Amino acid sequence: MAEIIVEEKGKKSGKRRPKKHSTRIDMTPMVDLMCLLITFFMLTTAFSKAKVMVITMPEKDPKDNPKDQPQISAARTLNILLTEGDKIYFYKGMADPKKPPLPALIKSDFSKDGIRKVLLDMNKDLFRKIAEYREKRITGKLVVADSTADNEIKRMKKDDRKGPIVLIKPDEKAKYKDIVNIIDEMAICNIASYAVVDLNTVEKDMVKNAPN
Amino acid sequence: MPKIKPPVRSPHIDMTPMVDLFSVLLIFLLLTASFRPQEAAPITTPSAVSEKQAPDNDIMTIFISKDGTIFFNFDNGKDTSTHFRSKLLAKMGEQYKITFTPKELDKFGKLASFGLPVKDIKTFINAQDSKERDALQTGIPTDSTDNQLAWWIRSARLTNPFAEVAIKGDGEAQYKVVKKIMDLLQENKVNKFNLVTTLMKEEVTLKDLPK
Fold first, then answer.
1. Mean pLDDT of all residues in chain B?
2. Inter-chain contacts counted by CB atoms under 8 A, chains A and B
């Protein structure tokens, strides 16, 4: 707005000096505001993106004959039964009611000395091969691209003829996290072949009568 | 002896460096931020060693809460002008004989995950606030008589054939619910699932190998 300066008369000095203001601005409110904004952003952002675990299931065809299913050797088969209360039972081989006695269920758990020990023991050769390969890359003895290394590991898994074939059989009362944990365990132990399948009636009874 | 007087200092602190620092932080956060999408139910995902990142676009996510309620989410695609969500809703409307106005379709495109029967979608879109919306979220029905989730999946597959499927389940959810969904997906020729997990490092080395 325009201001009319009225000349004052009767003053001792003719010149009026404007009061000197400090050139500094008080930054405190600005800092407060920024603090607030930063806190807001920190709380609303999702820093780490969600991770995913990829599983691929075999294609389901209604025309499939159960007899056409691939035959797997009983010696290599490891059955892992998941049930209520994060319990795991496992047995090796096959439970065939026509060929008694039925294999006994062994209780295990998700701890380090639980199912992992069993899996590592069965998968020793392949695990060693992959671990040594990875170590070579880390120590710098072998310089290859990530994709090449992934392919190499994939090939090792494919060529594996000795490791276990793990059948994961969750029952009705199993929790979702049990499945994730056990599939995760497969990844940790570098198991080449595993599948999530349903329990058959014999196994259902076995779980029911299993030791606690 | 005269007393030595310390020079009088102004009690003001220079805030400029602090402001500078905060600005840098603020700009960094602004640029890296991806807002946490609103979710209807709190879901604690199980932990795993997988380090693969979930894709940002072209993904349909099926949420399973602790009590087995199912929610669905579908993104608009890499190019947001494709409006996949609106197209999906239009397809569902055709299927269930519900007509949505272009405005409703547009509004639906901006919403996040949902879990409610198709007949309530209209009320859901026109709801005034999130409280009203949350009350409607009762889960997507999956009964064999009226399997709406199957239709959502089918329509989503038709709308965006490149969409991947992610399952974000609560660790405490029952496996049979997850299995039902997996079977449903397999019926719709989806054989590859992304199970959403939280990263938890777990290392096994050669030393741990039993002799």
1. 82
2. 174
| Residue in B64, B186, B209 nearest the CB of A57 | B186
Q: Residue B209 and residue A120: Cβ atoms within 8 Å?
A: yes
- Partners of residue A127 in chain B, C-beta under 8 Å: 204, 209
Q: With contact defined as beta carbons under 8 Å apart, do B50 and B153 qualify?
A: no
Which residue from A minimizes the CA distance to B34? Answer: A45
Among B60, B192, B195, B211, which would you mutate to test the A interface (most chain A Cβ atoms within 10 Å of its Cβ)?
A: B195
Comparing CA positions, the residue from B73, B44, B37 lying closest to residue B166 is: B73
DSSP calls for chain B: -PPPPPPP--SPPP-HHHHHHHHHHHHHHHHH--BPPP-SS---PPEES--EEPPSSSEEEEEE-TT--EEEEE---SSGGG-HHHHHHHHHHHHTT----HHHHHHHHH---B-S-GGGHHHHHH-SSHHHHHHH-----B-SSSBHHHHHHHHHHHH-TT-EEEEEE-TTSBHHHHHHHHHHHHHTT--EEEEEEEE------GGGS--
CB spacing of A53 vs B204 below 8 angstroms: no
Interchain proximity B46–A37, CB inside 8 Å: no
What pLDDT, in 10s, does the model give residues B173-184? 888 888 888 888
Please give the structure tokens belonging to residue A95.
Answer: 């439970």
ipTM above 0.85, yes or no: no
- Report CB contact under 8 Å: A49, B25: no
Tens digit of each residue's pLDDT (9 = 90 or more) over A63-101: 666 556 666 777 788 888 888 878 888 888 777 766 666
Structure tokens belonging to residue A108: 């295990």
Of A71, A121, A73, A79, give the one whose Cα is nearest residue A104. A79
Q: Using CB atoms and an 8 Å cut-off, which of residues 145-184 of chain A contact chain B? A: 170, 172-181, 183-184
> What confidence tens digit (pLDDT) does each residue in B98-139 have?
888 888 888 888 888 888 888 888 888 888 777 787 788 888
Using the structure block, give the residue that is written with the tokens 């008369």.
A9
Cβ contact A184–B48 (<8 Å): yes
